[in-house]
Write a structure and sequence with these properties.
This protein is of the alpha/beta class and about 475 residues long. Helices cover about 30% and strands about 25% of the residues. It is built from 13 helices and 22 strands.
Length: about 475
């Protein structure tokens, strides 16, 4: 079979790239080694984790907050089996949706491991070992990433687990030890903390969610401690050992003082690494740079007809970043002139409250020496937040000291993941803090906190504080 474009990998970057290629008139194929489409995000990442986050939030609301709302129920119990079953159904619906989109757009789905024979020929090996090959004019590599293990404690998938196994537990842990206080660790740690587990987080750096604005990390630390989560910041893990029915972790702080922890599961969430094994990149002369595929500003590799997107190339490992790159590559192939402003790709932590950020952090502005001003507004001053009992959190706006242009928007609070889109929009159009502060925001809404924070940044004149 011969194709105009072949995409290797069917995660958000891959399937979106394939759809856009098909929309633009290219004869398109997509190669996926698993039977289910959707990659990590749909199967063992974004979607299933959000399903469990929502289930656990419903549980804690029923347990702790219904009575205050005037809803009297018998004490709720966790049915972990049903939670996992519901999560699986959510995943299936999304995966089925991708399969439908492939058929709708006349994209050929080829199941097996795709590897290069040469720059225009790809060999496909199915799970029985049967081989076939296709020819293609252009290729988009979108094979994503996989969890990174600690070198001295590989995943055994029983007691020392990755995020994949954490989404399939048959029981609520008595004590879940989480190595890594980043996005994945905080999300999954909060799931099981809500469900009643003791959760202890070990983080090498001095703050959680360290890639985000420092204020966000400090606020998230406060609210997750309310859940009972415990933290050892500035600690280096030195060993993890599976003892059968328990796992023992040893760590030490910067002074060398050691700490021993015993739990029934240890979730290692120290990051993800690009998945490029089996691609046969050597057959086309592509060499990795620190594990990633080198690309130019147009996401083209050193081979003129081969592109790479998403987690296998530089930049944040985010599903929506991969999607934007997939669209950009497809449109470039069609002769269009798309672009991506990587500064304005938002980041989100789906704890509750949620954390969302776009643009520069305050730490980055300080490091660059750029003159800036800041304004913030707490959720506890919002009528809508009081009504919903979601008073934890704040909105923080960073703006240029001279021009008032918005440089960063950072939100921790209810619905922050949805609210951050207004920050992206404002910054794409290079709005000033005053521009946003003079726009009418419906009352009562959480978005009023954005308006008030912009007022605070503009002239230190918030109305409701």
């Amino acid at each position: 079979m011969q194709y105009n474009v072949t995409v290797i990998g069917s995660g958000p970057g891959g399937y979106v790239a394939a759809i856009r290629c098909a929309q633009l008139g290219f004869k398109t194929a997509i190669i996926e080694k698993y039977d289910a489409l959707g990659g990590t995000c749909l199967n063992v990442g974004c979607i299933p984790s959000k399903a469990l986050l929502d289930s656990s939030e419903h549980f804690i609301n029923a347990k702790d907050h219904f009575k205050e709302h005037g809803i009297d129920i018998a004490p709720p119990k966790v049915n972990i089996k049903q939670m996992i079953n519901r999560k699986a159904d959510v995943v299936k619906q999304n995966v089925d949706g991708i399969a439908y989109l492939m058929k709708k757009n006349k994209i050929e789905v080829l199941t097996g491991v795709g590897s290069f024979v040469d720059k225009n020929t790809i060999k496909i090996t199915d799970k029985e070992g049967k081989e076939s090959s296709i020819t293609t004019e252009k290729v988009i590599i979108a094979t994503g990433s996989k969890p990174t293990p600690l070198p001295f404690a590989p995943f055994d998938k029983k007691r020392i687990i990755s995020s994949t196994e954490a989404l399939e537990l048959k029981e609520v842990p008595k004590h879940l030890i989480v190595v890594g206080g980043g996005v994945i660790g905080m999300e999954l740690g909060s799931v099981y903390a809500r469900l009643g587990a003791k959760v202890t987080v070990i983080e090498f750096l001095d703050s959680i969610i360290p890639t985000m604005d420092g204020t966000m990390g400090k606020e998230l630390l406060k609210v997750t401690k309310k859940l009972g989560m415990q933290f050892y910041l500035g600690h280096k893990v030195t060993s993890i050992e599976n003892k059968g029915k328990e796992v023992v972790l040893k760590a030490e702080d910067k002074s060398g003082k050691s700490v021993d922890l015993t739990g029934d599961y240890c979730l290692v969430s120290i990051g993800r690494r690009p998945y490029t094994e089996g691609l046969g990149l050597d057959k086309v002369g592509i060499e990795l740079d620190k594990g990633k595929i080198p690309v130019d500003d147009h996401l083209k590799t050193k081979v003129d007809n081969i592109y790479a997107i998403g987690d296998v190339v530089r930049g944040a490992m985010l599903a929506h970043k991969a999607e934007e790159e997939g669209v950009m590559v497809a449109e470039q192939m069609a002769g269009q002139k798309p672009h991506i402003n990587y500064l304005l790709i938002p980041g989100v932590v789906y704890t509750w409250p949620e954390v969302a950020s776009v643009g520069y952090t305050e730490e980055q502005l300080k490091e660059s020496g750029r003159a800036y001003k800041t304004g913030s507004f707490p959720y506890k001053a919002l009528g809508r937040a009081r009504a919903s009992m979601d008073t934890d959190g704040l909105v923080k706006i960073l703006a240029d000291k001279q021009t008032d242009e918005i440089l960063g928007v950072h939100i921790i609070g209810a619905r922050a993941a949805d609210m951050i889109a207004t920050g992206v929009t404002a910054m794409e159009f290079r709005a000033s803090a005053e521009d946003v502060s003079r726009m009418s925001h419906a009352h009562p809404t959480y978005m009023e906190a954005v308006k008030e924070a912009c007022l605070a940044a503009t002239a230190n004149r918030p109305i409701h504080m």
